[in-house]
Amino acid sequence: MPKKRRSSRNIYSFIMILLGIILIIFWMPLWIWLVILGIVLIIFGINLYYR
Q1: In a 3-state reduction of DSSP, which class is residue 51?
Q2: Local structure of 34: helix, strand or coil
Q3: pLDDT at residue 28 greater than cutoff 80
C-alpha cells in the first residue's frame, strides 16, 4: 500500500513541475531563453574541456 501512495505523489510532483515549466515558458521573453541556452552551452563546453 505505501508504494501506491508514493507513486501517486510522484505523479502529482511531476504535474506540478510540468505546470511550473509551462508557466515559465509562457511568461519568459525569448532573450531570456537565449541567455539560458548560452549559459548551458558554456557549462557543457567547460565540462568537456576539463574532462
Answers
A1: coil
A2: helix
A3: no
